[in-house]
Prior knowledge:
- The protein is an all-alpha fold.
- The chain has one domain (3-63).
- It has helices spanning 3-16, 18-25, 28-44, 50-63.
- The chain is elongated and about 50 Å long.
- The termini are far apart.
- This is DUF4129 domain-containing protein.
Amino acid sequence: MNPRRKMKCLQDFRKSHPDVYWLRFGTEEKASNYLSRLQRRIDSQTQPSVFERITNALRRRLQSPVKQQD
């Protein structure tokens, strides 16, 4: 999973299900360590250029199934 997406999912999950979140991590220190490692992974990723983002979007568009109209 993309680290940025994973961070967002964890933050949303923490807000909506704090009891399960704390069962997973146990302590604030463990949660903080995990999130800081995840943030380091996010920071170390290179940002795609505008050209790469457009190319990736077009590639996904071409690979998606075509909807047939009746």
